[in-house]
Amino acid sequence: MENFWENEFVQTAGNYSVVILCLVLFLAIFELVTKYRNWEEIKKGNLAVAMATGGKIFGIANIFRHSISHNDTIITTIGWGVFGFVLLLIGYFIYEFLTPKFRIDEEIENDNRAVGFISLVISVGLSYVIGAGIS
Q1: How far apart are CA 64 and CA 134, in angstroms?
Q2: Is the model's pTM score more than 0.85?
Q3: How far apart are CA 129 and CA 35, in angstroms?
Protein backbone atom coordinates (compact mmCIF):
# COMPACT_ATOMS: atom_id res chain seq x y z
CA MET A 1 0.00 0.00 0.00
CA GLU A 2 2.93 2.34 0.65
CA ASN A 3 3.95 2.13 -3.03
CA PHE A 4 0.42 3.15 -3.99
CA TRP A 5 0.74 6.54 -2.26
CA GLU A 6 4.18 7.12 -3.79
CA ASN A 7 2.89 6.58 -7.32
CA GLU A 8 3.13 9.80 -9.37
CA PHE A 9 -0.34 9.31 -10.84
CA VAL A 10 -1.86 8.96 -7.39
CA GLN A 11 0.05 11.98 -6.09
CA THR A 12 -1.02 14.08 -9.09
CA ALA A 13 -4.66 13.05 -8.66
CA GLY A 14 -4.42 13.82 -4.93
CA ASN A 15 -2.91 17.26 -5.50
CA TYR A 16 -5.48 17.98 -8.20
CA SER A 17 -8.38 16.99 -5.96
CA VAL A 18 -7.13 19.03 -3.02
CA VAL A 19 -6.50 22.11 -5.17
CA ILE A 20 -10.00 21.91 -6.69
CA LEU A 21 -11.54 21.73 -3.21
CA CYS A 22 -9.41 24.63 -1.98
CA LEU A 23 -10.22 26.64 -5.10
CA VAL A 24 -13.95 26.22 -4.51
CA LEU A 25 -13.53 27.19 -0.84
CA PHE A 26 -11.34 30.21 -1.60
CA LEU A 27 -13.70 31.45 -4.33
CA ALA A 28 -16.56 31.18 -1.83
CA ILE A 29 -14.54 33.33 0.57
CA PHE A 30 -13.90 35.89 -2.17
CA GLU A 31 -17.64 35.82 -2.88
CA LEU A 32 -18.27 36.76 0.76
CA VAL A 33 -15.89 39.73 0.74
CA THR A 34 -17.09 41.25 -2.54
CA LYS A 35 -20.33 43.17 -2.77
CA TYR A 36 -21.38 41.52 -6.02
CA ARG A 37 -22.30 37.88 -6.75
CA ASN A 38 -19.60 36.55 -9.08
CA TRP A 39 -21.51 33.83 -10.87
CA GLU A 40 -24.73 35.84 -11.23
CA GLU A 41 -22.80 38.73 -12.78
CA ILE A 42 -20.86 36.39 -15.07
CA LYS A 43 -24.13 34.78 -16.16
CA LYS A 44 -25.37 38.27 -17.09
CA GLY A 45 -22.28 38.78 -19.24
CA ASN A 46 -20.37 41.11 -16.90
CA LEU A 47 -16.88 40.91 -18.41
CA ALA A 48 -15.27 42.94 -15.60
CA VAL A 49 -16.44 40.37 -13.02
CA ALA A 50 -15.30 37.53 -15.30
CA MET A 51 -11.82 39.07 -15.60
CA ALA A 52 -11.52 39.72 -11.87
CA THR A 53 -12.75 36.20 -11.05
CA GLY A 54 -10.47 34.67 -13.68
CA GLY A 55 -7.53 36.50 -12.14
CA LYS A 56 -8.41 35.12 -8.73
CA ILE A 57 -8.68 31.58 -10.12
CA PHE A 58 -5.35 31.90 -11.92
CA GLY A 59 -3.74 33.47 -8.86
CA ILE A 60 -4.89 30.71 -6.53
CA ALA A 61 -3.85 27.99 -8.99
CA ASN A 62 -0.44 29.62 -9.46
CA ILE A 63 0.13 29.77 -5.71
CA PHE A 64 -0.72 26.08 -5.42
CA ARG A 65 1.56 25.30 -8.36
CA HIS A 66 4.49 26.67 -6.36
CA SER A 67 3.27 25.00 -3.19
CA ILE A 68 3.04 21.59 -4.87
CA SER A 69 6.46 21.96 -6.49
CA HIS A 70 8.25 22.73 -3.26
CA ASN A 71 6.54 20.57 -0.65
CA ASP A 72 6.61 16.84 -0.02
CA THR A 73 3.33 16.28 1.79
CA ILE A 74 -0.20 17.23 0.93
CA ILE A 75 -0.65 18.84 4.37
CA THR A 76 2.34 21.12 3.84
CA THR A 77 1.10 21.93 0.35
CA ILE A 78 -2.31 22.90 1.74
CA GLY A 79 -0.70 24.96 4.50
CA TRP A 80 1.38 27.01 2.09
CA GLY A 81 -1.58 27.28 -0.29
CA VAL A 82 -3.78 28.66 2.48
CA PHE A 83 -1.04 31.07 3.53
CA GLY A 84 -0.66 32.23 -0.08
CA PHE A 85 -4.41 32.69 -0.39
CA VAL A 86 -4.48 34.84 2.75
CA LEU A 87 -1.74 37.02 1.24
CA LEU A 88 -3.73 37.27 -2.01
CA LEU A 89 -6.81 38.28 -0.01
CA ILE A 90 -4.79 40.93 1.84
CA GLY A 91 -3.62 42.20 -1.56
CA TYR A 92 -7.27 42.59 -2.58
CA PHE A 93 -7.96 44.75 0.49
CA ILE A 94 -4.83 46.83 -0.12
CA TYR A 95 -5.96 47.41 -3.73
CA GLU A 96 -9.34 48.59 -2.44
CA PHE A 97 -7.63 50.87 0.12
CA LEU A 98 -5.26 52.40 -2.45
CA THR A 99 -8.12 53.54 -4.69
CA PRO A 100 -10.05 55.98 -2.47
CA LYS A 101 -11.60 57.89 -5.41
CA PHE A 102 -13.86 54.96 -6.33
CA ARG A 103 -15.01 51.63 -4.93
CA ILE A 104 -13.44 48.66 -6.73
CA ASP A 105 -16.40 46.35 -6.10
CA GLU A 106 -18.90 48.89 -7.40
CA GLU A 107 -16.87 49.56 -10.54
CA ILE A 108 -16.48 45.84 -11.27
CA GLU A 109 -20.18 45.23 -10.61
CA ASN A 110 -20.96 48.05 -13.07
CA ASP A 111 -18.83 46.23 -15.70
CA ASN A 112 -15.95 48.71 -15.67
CA ARG A 113 -13.61 46.53 -17.70
CA ALA A 114 -10.56 48.66 -16.99
CA VAL A 115 -10.96 48.01 -13.26
CA GLY A 116 -11.73 44.33 -13.92
CA PHE A 117 -8.57 44.02 -16.00
CA ILE A 118 -6.40 45.71 -13.37
CA SER A 119 -7.92 43.37 -10.76
CA LEU A 120 -6.97 40.40 -12.93
CA VAL A 121 -3.40 41.65 -13.37
CA ILE A 122 -3.02 42.38 -9.66
CA SER A 123 -4.20 38.87 -8.70
CA VAL A 124 -1.91 37.21 -11.24
CA GLY A 125 1.05 39.45 -10.41
CA LEU A 126 0.73 38.96 -6.68
CA SER A 127 0.46 35.21 -7.17
CA TYR A 128 3.89 35.21 -8.82
CA VAL A 129 5.38 37.17 -5.93
CA ILE A 130 3.69 34.90 -3.38
CA GLY A 131 4.81 31.84 -5.35
CA ALA A 132 8.40 33.06 -5.37
CA GLY A 133 8.23 33.39 -1.60
CA ILE A 134 6.94 29.83 -1.28
CA SER A 135 9.70 28.50 -3.54
Answers
A1: 9
A2: yes
A3: 27
